[in-house]
């Protein structure tokens, strides 16, 4: 077990993990009579790569949507940066420093890569719609500043060559990377990645893993990750939450989770009355 | 350092070339000092970063280099030290080279795509104390081999990304070194001046390793005399001036890049543009629109293939217009470029074509402003060559070697053909030995192979004549040199006829479908060939013909692909048969290899030249099959993946017979 004092802990590869930044307490989410999430609690620490895994339909994406503010749980509370988070729409959650990517790519297909990434900074722009449309005075200056930030992200993710290519023309792996770029452009403190490697080949997965580690390393971004590829999860993450049928069945380091009997059962499909 | 120049006019376009300054121009740092005065506010370097072209004037470059050099002094770089430079073309790496020269050290550029063990040999052989790496990837390789290579004391890196967690006890960010150098100016300025003053024509300018199609790479030591005299002569030959622009995208370890992006750039004072990264080359080329351009035939081939593939997808009207005007360009374009008489009607039509097709096409390719373009390294297909010339692009050929500081022969304007390599460059003497081997002597001739006196002696004789290792002859009418093949590759067949594999391979490679060909037949009674298909061209063809394939191997074995290749081989046979001297080199049997020849597997050099012996050894079973008459051969081949892992490729390769043409009349023995 990791030494998890309030201040944080040091990972096996020597990274300093900070105090808890987001804490989920007794979250229950219902859709009508269906309980998608049943009384789950866990925390996310600053600078951590935190994975959420589980079989299909376990409630992982719902959990992600709760964190991003898209779903509001019927029970339980979310403590973010020490304060209980009030009920707020997702765009306001985004303003508090939480950005995400989607399981199914949700980019503007007709727009260029650059414009897509620029939309990631929408929340940070001060000038209003009219000023931006007229592109006048402070609005133009502001755009320059945002463009500079976006270019740094483009450089970081090595997508210079497709800067002006319409997204619709890109292969799947690159679209995923553009989506990550858009999320990064928002300069989030917590980055939610919903199956960033789904449908990728080995080489694309290696690239994406490297980028995730680099983001965490360079910007100190806390990363919450849903992923099916167990190799990727075990290699990347510091701590793993395992869900099954909306319940938390495991929480700990990759090694602890790997040796947890409940987790093994959930994945191998042991019948529940045994 | 600028103090000395204080009060002088820093105006842009002043010509100050007195004999007094000329005589002192005996090193690259001296040229930089001159440019910083004469061309102070002209752009010396551009690099696209964060989507914007950043630029530096000569004056700024001087300041950057001085600061770097003082930083190197602070790290204890001593005269004669070797400094390995590993990375893609970036201004700061070029400056590091000049800064190393400034303190009396010798820059050694390495191929950045070399695997760690290849790098280990070079680093160990030159005994580099410092390694300057472009990014984390290169740093990792150096660290990996640091155990076996004892010499490396300091690793410097340019791109900070991912480097934060490394142990920095013997590692520095290049910019930190520069900042320290700047801060310590008062301590090191005098020392730097002394070191620079000690440089002369005989001090080493750079050491570059030959790629070596056989054996281990050799370190070619080039002096300031070699580089500067060559730069001077070649700049005059093509009237290169400070107004020219080039794109530096070829490996820094290659002598050509050193001559173009350092020698000529510093001599003429023109601007060196560095692309954003490897993948943006085409877009950057278009944005810069260089006036002077060098590319190996492969690049021109790829560009042409891209154009043709895209024209296949164009609308019928556009395609018709393109075909019509390209046909006209093929007829008169070359003649107009060479200043030959062409009728007024044809000229008018060509001008129309320029407006409708050639101009926009050149603009798309980024070749609108080209004044001089060169290709070298391999033979270029006549059709490819003529395509560019017919567009009005002054594409010429040159023949050169690392040992010659590039230039041996080149084509003067107006005397350009695809099958010769031109006349001896200014200051170069060329002679053909009785064996047919080409020898040359020039101010550019290298000093020695580093730590290898035997090879130096066997390559360069006491009078300074250097053996090229190529067989060739001068055309009696034009005085142009023609190269047949590597001298050591030219052999005899069992019945005594001449065997010149490269000659046949080049003819094969002129077909867009064929990427590489290797012909065997030395000492045998007939020739056979291995073919590599071009995945781009053949893949596109497959797509248009609804042929599904999942891998190179599958496409290479497709019967229709084999049939197409067979047609090409037979056409080449017919063409080879026309030359009585070489008619014995016709290909009797061939196969399409199940894998692409790759430098990672040692089958090619890093400059993509086939290592014939290694290929023959590795695929001995296939050669035996070809000579033995089998219809197919099952083979297993070890391959290396990009991350260094090994795997085994299993395949059953189909062997095919090709029609050969019986030569007319008597066979001529090559004596």
UniProtKB/TrEMBL annotation, chain A:
- Gene Ontology cellular-component terms listed: plasma membrane
Q: Does the keyword Nucleotide-binding apply?
A: yes
Which GO molecular-function terms appear in the entry?
A: ATP binding; ATP hydrolysis activity
Q: What is this protein called?
A: ABC transporter ATP-binding protein
Under the heading InterPro entries, the entry gives: AAA+_ATPase, ABC_AA/LPS_Transport, ABC_transporter-like_ATP-bd, BCA_ABC_TP_C, P-loop_NTPase
Key word ATP-binding present: yes
Source organism (scientific name): Pararhodobacter marinus
Signal peptide (from-to): none
Instruction: Could you list this entry's UniProt keywords, alphabetically sorted.
Output: ATP-binding, Nucleotide-binding, Transport
Domain of life where this protein originates: Bacteria
Tell me which residues make up the ABC transporter domain. Answer: 22-270
